[in-house]
Amino acid sequence: MNANDRLRISEENTRNWVNSIELEDSDTCSVVDSIVESSIIESSSDSESGEEHALGTWISDKISATDEKPYRDITQLSTTCPDLEKLTQLVSKMPPPSFGNVSISNSNSVVMGNIIKINGNIIINKDGNSSSVTTAADDMSENNDENPPDLRPERKIEVKKKPVYRPACLIISRDRWLAMAPIEPYNPIDVPTDLVIICHTATVDSTEQAKNIGIIRDIQTFHVETRGWDDIGYNFLIGCDGNVYEGRGWGVEGAHTFRYNRFSIAVAFIGTFMHKLPTQRALNACKNLLKRGVDEDHLTKNFKLMAHNQFMSTASPGAVLCDELKTWEHFYDGDSEELFTYYNNRNESSITEGTTNLK
User: Fold this and answer.
1) Which residues contact 247 (CB under 8 A, 6 or more apart)?
2) pTM (two decimals)
3) Which pLDDT score is estimated for 137?
4) What are the residue ranges of helices labelled H in 234-303?
């Protein structure tokens, strides 16, 4: 296709376009004639250079099939071509483009269509070779479906937890209060034990753990260096801070009550309780310790609870604390000598039986 053919087609397209515009201006026909007669052409996409040109005009009046010369764009022609000025006026009179009930004028960067905004986490579900994307939140769009998409629920893995044993009370071990090692190994006693003796340390009391640890270490030093014992005399100690501190521990002989050490364990409240009670936290800690002893078979289910002054002439565990113990379960107000005879005979019979079994 040569240049003359392109010019002829361009003129026909221009005339058809202008005639399709409905305007009330009476000079429409004259404007159309002047546009057709002008040198405005629209280059086609099959040009030899392969470039697509905008609506323009040649600088030279002569058009040939081989010669292509630079041209000015339509904004430059408005200053030199009077017919193009009429075209500009004609275009300005055209109604703005409309899309249904929407009309747009004097605007740019306008997008017509659905805009989907996603608010929420995106879950990618892969099934074999296919994949799909779903969201936890509803899609915000102009055309929302009446029925929301069937979102695949997240997979929850159920982990079966094993029951955790929680003792009735926690015991602060010897390592935590920096106890000295015993001079000699402990002597074992019968387990479960049937007798618990409550004492007091006849020292100051404290609701602070650090001070109670210092008091316990002083007691251990006094028992070892002054009394000449192998270790601190009590099996357990209880502070007014509500903590239970390990002394010699379960199932071993202590050094607290003459003649009864082989048959019992001793629990000592840190302080002097002649005129006051230990704190409620300390009392609860003692009860929980005894319950733990039963739960772990360190104590018999029907163990006997007695005060230190029931066995010997001493103020321990204090008059006020002694009255409190009388209200507790398992408290035994019987004769201590009868108990000694009972436990001693039981112990001797067990020793005799053991000796007979060895023969």
Assistant:
1) 174, 231, 232, 233, 234, 235, 236, 237, 254, 266, 268
2) 0.54
3) 47
4) 280-295
